[in-house]
Structures are given as C-alpha cells and as structure tokens.
Amino acid sequence: MERWEGRRSVTNADHSVRGGAVADAMTNTETRTGLTRALLWLVVAVLAVRQMAVVLRQPPGERLTDLETWIGENGVLHVTGSLYDSGRFTGTPFAGLVLKPLTASAEASLGIAWTFGSLLLVAALGVVAARALPAPVGRRTALLAVPVAITLLMLSLPVRNTLHLGQTSILPVLLVLLACFVVRDHRLQGVLVGLAAALQPTLLLFAALLWLTGKRRASVTAAAAFALCTAAAWAAVPKDSWTYWVHHVAGAGLGERPDSLANQSLHGALLRLGFEGPAEIALFLVLAAAVTVIGVRRAVRYAQDGQLLLAVAVTGCVVVAVSPTAWQHQLLWVLLAVVGKVGKRASDRLVWPAVVVLVITLPAKMLLPNVGLVIPVRDNALLVAALGAACFAPFLLRTSPYWQRPVPTDFAKPVAARWRRVPLLPFWRRVLHRPNLLLELLLIRVVYSAYAQVRLAATAGRPLAEEHGRQIHAIEQWLHIDIELWVNHTVVEITWLREFFDYYYSTFHFIVPLTILGVLYARRPADYRWARTSIGFATLLALVGFWLYPLAPPRLMPGLGFIDTVHGVQDFAKPDYGTLTTVTNQYAAMPSLHFGWSLWCGVVIVMLAPRMWMKALGLLHPLFTIAAIVATANHWVLDAAGGALVVSLGFGLTYLLSGPRKLVTEEKQPAEPGRPEPGATRAARRQESEDALT
C-alpha cells in the first residue's frame, strides 16, 4: 500500500511538472499569436493607406477612370441619349439607374468617398469570408483568418484593378456572401442574390445553387428580385434595356475588345486562340454548358459536405468561365477558392493555395516565361485557375481521413553545428522528401522575375556609372590585375575563340545552374533545398549591389578601347547607348552573377558529385565563365570577385540559418549508450501511461 501511495505521489508530481510546462508553452503560443495578429492588422492598415494614396495621387484624368467615364462632367450618365452609345459603359441598365444619383456629387469628394467605401467593402468581404471557413477551425486560425483574408484581398489583382478604375465589382461578391453566410431569412437571401444578379447577370447561377442545396424559397425569390429589378430598369430606360439585353445579348461585346487579354472567360480565350464566327459561338456554348454542369454539381457536393464557402467559390469560378466577358476586376471568385484543401500529404497542402495566391496577385508575365508553348497558358492564367477550381481540383471532403490528419511531413534531424548559435532559426526545419515541383517552378520563376525587375529598376545615370567604372579600373591598375583590355583584344583576333566565348557567355549562364537544380531535385532532394536556398540568398545580395553601386562594364566605358563582342558596337553618342538599355540594366555589373552563379555550380558539383572527373569538370565552368566575361568586355575582374563574395555569403547565410547541409534520419541515428531504441522508447511510454492510469 505504501509503495502504491509513493508511486501515485511521484506520478502526481510528474503530472504537475508537465502541466506547468504545457501551460507555459500555451502562454508562449498565445503571445506569439497575438503579436502575429497585431502585425497582420498593421499590414492591413498600411495596405489600405497605400491603396488610398496610390489612387488619389493620380492625376484626375488617370484615376477612377471608369467612374469618371460614368459620372464625370461629360460622363455617359450626364449626357442625354443611350448609355451605350459611346461604348464606355458596360454595366446593366439597372446599374446605370443605381449610379445615376451620384452625378450630383462633387467630383473631388466623391473620389475620396468612393475609394474609402471600396476599401470598407473589401474589409467587410474579408470578415465574412474568414467567418465562413468550414468547421472545425483552430483558435489560432480563427484569430488570424480575418487580417490574412483582408491582406490577400487588397493584394489581389481584381481589387487593385477595381480601386484603380472605380468599379463596382466588389459589391456583387459581397451581396452573395452576405446572402450565404450572414442572412438567415430565405427571402432576404434571395433578394440579395437577385440584386447581385441585376448588377452582373451571370451571378443568377447562384439561384441554381440555392435551389439544388434545398433553399428553394431563396432561389425563387432571387429569380423574382432579378426579374423585378430588370423590369424596373426596362420601364425607366427601355431603349437602353433593348440595347443591352437584345442587341448586345446581355452585354456581350460592350467595352474593350472581347479577345483582349483583359477578358478572362472561355469566350475571350477561344477568340485569342483564333476561333471566330458561328463556330466559335457554338464551341463556347458547348464548353460553357459542360463547365456549368460539372462545376455546379461539384459545388452542390461541397455544400452538402459542409464546405459552403468552397461551394460559393466554385460557383463563382463557373461564372467567370461562362460569362461572355470576365474582366480582371470581376475575378475575386478565384481567390475565394483558396479555402479548398487538396492533397493527402501535409507537404502538399500549400500547393493549391500558393498557386491561387500567385496567380491572383502577380501579373501572368511574372509567372511564366515568354516561350511559345506556354504563352497560351500565360495569357489565360486566371481562366486556367478558375477552370481548375470549377472542374478539376480534387478538393478533399470533410469525411476524408486526411481532412484533419494528412500524411505527416518527413522531417530530418540536422547534424550538430560547429558553433552553438547555429542555426539561428531553429524552427527552420529540414525535410528529406522532394518538394512539390509546381511550387518550385513557380518559386524559381517569381524570384527570377523579381530579380529582372529590380535589376532593371536599379538604374542610375551614365556619369555615376562611368565614375564607378573609373574607380574599379584605377583599383585594378593599382593591384596590377587590369588585364581586361589585353584579353579582350587578344580574343577578338582569334575568330573561333571569340565565337566560343560569346556563345558560352550568353548560353551556359542559365543552362548549367538549372541543370544542377534539376538533377538535385530528382536525385538528392534534401541537398536540393540547401543548394536552392544558397543561390537564392546570393541573388538577393547581388540585387543589393546592383542598387547601391551602379557600375559601367568595360564595353560601356568610352575612351578605353574595349570591343563588345556579344552585343555589337554601342553608340556612345546616345545617353542610353541605343535600345539595349531599354531591355535590361546595363549598369548592373557589380557583382557579376555570371561568375557568381558559375562559382555556385562549381562548389555544388565538387561537394556532391560522386566521381572525381565530375568534380574536375565542375571546376572548369567557373574558369571558362570568368574568361568569357573578361574576354567579351562585359565585366571587370573585380566584378568576379564581387560575385564570389555574394556566393560565399549565400552559403554562409544558409549555414547560419538552417545549419549544416548534412541531415540524419531517425533510422541512421546511432543509439547512444544507455539510450533505448525507438521501439523500446515507445513501449516505455506506453508502460508509463498504464502506470499513470493505475
């Protein structure tokens, strides 16, 4: 009996210690969550102020252009005659009646009120969407969902386009969400959906969703409200109603050309692909019918599963695809599809949200390169995302065993670092499995696009760049390493050598790093993550150098006699040296990423290649590269030293933040003396649990 009491006292003491540790951990977690939430709300405030400033700082003729077209001094709502005579008004006749009273407002005050009101609508939309997340929702998610939703909305292309144009497209989306998630009365739900459809007719598809999900009274009321609003507009402006509904077939053809890139509907995509006439119309109707049937059936299924927000998003994506015209400011439905869960593995859960966020927030040219095969996808990126959400994305049902418990990510244990304070980010956990290919391709493309944009934006005046060039040249003369002119003229005299270096300079710069990353991705995924991070850090540091120290390369230094073997003779009489500087920043020479990336390739090959001849071949690449950049007069020798520096810092930062490259799996970890094997540890824990229960 005394032995049992002693065991119970020890157990109680152990529980109290563990309970205190758990309480401390929960307190720390809540503190971090609170700080994160405050930071997110600060981001929301900053974005709101920035959006207001961006809109209102524009000259009167360049801001709120659609609103100005409607209600300005010479706007279509002011002048007599049809709303659609000028082709500048694309809304329904009912929308014209709603906007008509605003013509009496002062233009300056209306612009401020309109922009501020639009931001309030965005905030309300984010609140409603965040509150509509399918249950169960964790406490942390519930606290952070609203600011995250508002931030994503403000960063999205549709909202930015809406604020710039002064459009009304946020209002129909908000009306539908209020009907589905806030209002409980079925008749009022129908009225809200009917009003949204009166502003944008294809939203009447939500009446079908209401009917198929059992809300038939709301569905009938929506149709009746839409008909009543349309009839009222027809009675008030019969000529305009005839023009909109009959002559233009529900507004098709109004506004910009339907085959422009701004029209992200199936109709616009077919026109861009070369279809036209009756054949295009027939094909569009067939595809639209198929998308509608598939999408609405999926939406009904998700609604019955308790994922009503996903059902609304899928229906909205169907609306985007089947509308005759779906302009950029009407595509918010695609962003709402981010709530869908795709993938059985935890490591794959971020793939679909990341794709949606990237597509809806970045221009298509940043996502895909200007390559013939992918241009149709690039030009229709938003439509592809909408079709994916409506018809193809395999969203999980809540009844799936993977809904709350996905297959866990295979984390690995890092090798101990030499210094105690490495890694500086212990939460940066390393994994063994291969990262998702789609996300990696998007990441590489987005980083490269940002690199190209910053490199182009980091321009400076010609005098400053040439002054820096004279500084570098003087330092090299003092160090007796000013060999660029001799190498350049020597290579020019040897035709085959000049052609070789020209080809090497313009080709291998991209091919070799991408090949190495591809091989590592396929064969050594853990090393791929480490190598990818190091070259990413090196590139970011190089951008800082381009920005802070614009430098004219030897070929752009007048009076020194260098010959540009790659780009041809430059006209020094022109400040921009011809048209070349409109394509890229010619003063981004320090540091040299041509040499930096080649050095990264050599280091990675030497560290990871299994054969000595491979290591030797890897060392030749940076040697050939430094010879090429000097021979073609595209870089100074010190530019290569700068490239080596940023690559070294890239490797160093990766080591400091995430620790050594090597990882240890649980199976490979040597058993310490006196330490039981993992199986024995689990058995011991089960025994402790049984003892505690006893």
From TrEMBL:
Pfam families: GT87, PAP2_3. Keywords: Cell membrane, Membrane, Transferase, Transmembrane, Transmembrane helix. The keyword Chloroplast does not apply. Residues 470-652 form the Inositolphosphotransferase Aur1/Ipt1 domain. Residues 685-694 have a biased composition (Basic and acidic residues). Residues 665-694 are annotated as: Disordered. It is a multi-pass membrane protein. It is found in: Cell membrane. The chain crosses the membrane at residues 38-56, 108-130, 142-159, 165-183, 190-212, 281-300, 306-338, 350-368, 380-397, 503-522, 534-552, 587-609, 616-634, 640-658. It comes from the Bacteria. GO terms for molecular function: hexosyltransferase activity. GO terms for cellular component: plasma membrane. Belongs to the glycosyltransferase 87 family. PANTHER family: PA-PHOSPHATASE RELATED-FAMILY PROTEIN DDB_G0268928 (PTHR31310:SF7), PTHR31310. This is DUF2029 domain-containing protein.
